[in-house]
Amino acid sequence: MKTLLSLQEFISQQKNIILFVGCGIFAIQALVFISSFGINFTQYGDGWLIPKSADMITNEYIWNNLLNEIDSHISVFPKLLILISYFIDNLNFVHLMYIGWAILAISLVYHFKIIQSIDKRLTWIILPVAAFVFSPLQHFALVSAYVGLQWELTMLGIVVSVYYLNKKPYNKKSFLFAIFSSLVASYTLISGIISWAIGVISISKNIKKMIAWSSIAAAVIFSYTLFAKSIESTSNFSNLTSIDGLTYFLTFISIPFRLKFPELNLLAGIGSTILLICLISYFLKNKKQISNVQPYIQFTVAGFLISIMHLIGRFGDVETKAWLFGHSTYYAVIANLPQIALMALLSILVLKFWPSRKKLATVLLLIIILQVIFISPGYYLGWQWGDEYFQKNSEKYSCFSQSPKNVFLCNEIFDSKSQIIHNANYLLEYNLSIFTNNEFNSDYIFTASEINKQWNDNVNSQKGVGYIETVNDISVSNN
């Protein structure tokens, strides 16, 4: 008994160190993930960064297109980060991924601040929260510079805005920080506009703040109607009343999990949604506690509304099953919020009921443990997908080195992927991205026997006499 008490005392004394080390483990694995699988080249969603004209300078191109929409998004803040990278870092995409990691780390700090402001006994849940925030399941957000920054900045904007709107004592400085954070979210992804809607929950009783908040929100929405012309053409409100639409919504809530069968993910989404509705209803009836749990009500509403936005604007008329389409892994960055809210609300009730209603508290604790178990497969699959992603793309980008890894793949790219060739030529001409690395070619040097084997195995290759006219669509006569 004395040993147990001394162990509890030790854990209590070293709590902050344990929390820091535990969160650090999750953060470091995400950093290693980026270091292992990040590729310094344009990925899906990054193609717009390369001007169509080879004579146009990238920084001027990005600056001129700062307010232009991309897939209905006005992504001002990610573009500014990329612009800075162009000036000081030769457009190094891997370094931009590290910035994305730093954004996740900052968001975790604000999650901790929110938890601490409610009840210091709850701070232990920052460990599973860190597991959500740094999950490799969101692998594409981690290893895609532009797309990753979009989702990470939007999530950070929502979390920071919620923190400052609920900070006590409440002051003008906090209100201004909340406004700025919501602007960052809004002008990163269209989903970030939701931050204005959930902000109303915090300031609805303050008329002056409501007027200021609503006015800025209206201005943001108006700016989207001016600059994001494709919103109307991509919207499909009929999805809201379809079975596939409901399936999409419920599965979106469970994206942070990756269970063996899609039906299990759907069940997890149904269970999470029902629990969240029941928990929020309970706290709304117990008005004494409502101010404490308000941030997690806002995270839940944000997750629900963003899921509906995607359902209207992204689901469209695709024939793919809703559960599959809803599993784009970078969505997990936002879909984490309702799951974190569920964990926090359950934890608050565990603390409340443990002294008097231990059976109920135990059931609630088991649900939290189940959440943690459901996160685990995502870690294994995330690293597996990250490795597959790296192997596939490193072969593709070796085609632009002196020693391509896969001649057949390179032939396919050079025959049909004109955009990739244009991007590579542009980056090479301006000494950007992967072409600033002096080790790029040495990383792909093969032995002579390997090169000869690939050449001889290529049935499309022909031996003959001739001369080289172009290399990567660039005429050799110009050199």
From TrEMBL:
Keywords of this entry: Membrane, Transmembrane, Transmembrane helix
Keyword Transmembrane helix on entry: yes
TM helices/strands, residue ranges: 17-39, 93-110, 122-142, 148-165, 177-198, 210-228, 240-259, 265-284, 296-316, 328-351, 363-383
Signal peptide: none
Protein name, entry field: Glycosyltransferase RgtA/B/C/D-like domain-containing protein
